[in-house]
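Query structure, 260 tokens:
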């Protein structure tokens, strides 16, 4: 049996544009370098492809500096896809740019019409349920509108909360398998993962929590050796990707693809 929450045949990515230097960031810790980012992006795409998946690689969008972070524009479920309504005004236009690619892949394509906001980075699909974290980008009205669609498609959706100062819910967690979630201690402490097996990232390696399980692989940011070792001990096949430039814009492994 396949599990559509981590077994995928396709992914959508978008190469970063030169305007990436103007991407949003909570704190300025340096300007990302396009060349290094393109190299890291290529190794990310190669890792996805190495599992046998088809990767639809979209062209860079100069008008939208954050467009490389495609995950925030949509939610992909087996029944259909839902276009999001980003809480960041500068990212709203990215959704219309993603729509044609999804129209080519899905018969049922819905959209969050508003007035609420919701970004894909706040949504963790576990297979058992869909967890949506309210955050600075995702509000109650956005969650409620998604809940209506998800319920119609037979999913149960649970609203949870992203810790203060954390960009997205999935900045701090990722699904490893049907039962297992990788999380920071601060997010797990909220109690939102009751009933799951939770693996904590090593203290001081919080930025390792935004990983993705993609078929047989776990893609994680390089530079977090204790978390990588722990995942290896747990039997996961870990691939480390250079995330230094994306991290300057608060981005991680999940943000760089839509997976379905
Ligand atoms: C932003 O602030 O929207 C981007 N600089 C980073 C988005 C990261 N996306 C994600 O975690 N899903």
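Result returned for the query:
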């Amino acid at each position: 049996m396949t599990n559509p929450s981590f077994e995928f045949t396709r992914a959508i990515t978008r190469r970063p544009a030169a305007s990436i230097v103007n991407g949003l960031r909570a704190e300025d810790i340096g300007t990302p370098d396009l060349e290094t980012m393109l190299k890291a992006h290529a190794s990310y795409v190669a890792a996805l492809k190495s599992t046998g998946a088809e990767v639809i690689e979209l062209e860079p969008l100069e008008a939208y500096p954050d467009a490389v972070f495609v995950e925030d524009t949509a939610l992909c479920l087996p029944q259909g896809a839902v276009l999001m309504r980003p809480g960041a005004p500068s990212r709203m236009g990215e959704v219309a740019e993603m729509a044609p690619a999804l129209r080519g892949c899905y018969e049922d394509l819905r959209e969050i019409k508003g007035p609420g906001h919701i970004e894909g980075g706040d949504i963790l699909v576990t297979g058992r349920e869909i967890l949506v974290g309210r955050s600075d980008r995702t509000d109650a009205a956005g969650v409620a509108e998604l809940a209506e669609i998800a319920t119609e498609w037979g999913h149960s959706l649970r609203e949870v909360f992203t810790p203060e100062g954390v960009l997205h819910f999935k900045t701090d967690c990722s699904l490893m398998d049907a039962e297992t979630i990788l999380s920071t201690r601060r997010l797990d402490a909220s109690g939102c993962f009751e009933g799951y097996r939770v693996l904590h990232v090593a203290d001081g390696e919080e930025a390792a929590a935004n990983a993705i399980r993609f078929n047989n692989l776990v893609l994680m940011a390089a530079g977090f050796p204790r978390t990588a070792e722990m995942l290896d001990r747990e039997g996961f096949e870990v691939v480390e990707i250079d995330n230094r430039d994306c991290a300057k814009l608060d981005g991680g492994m999940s943000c760089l693809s839509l997976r379905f």
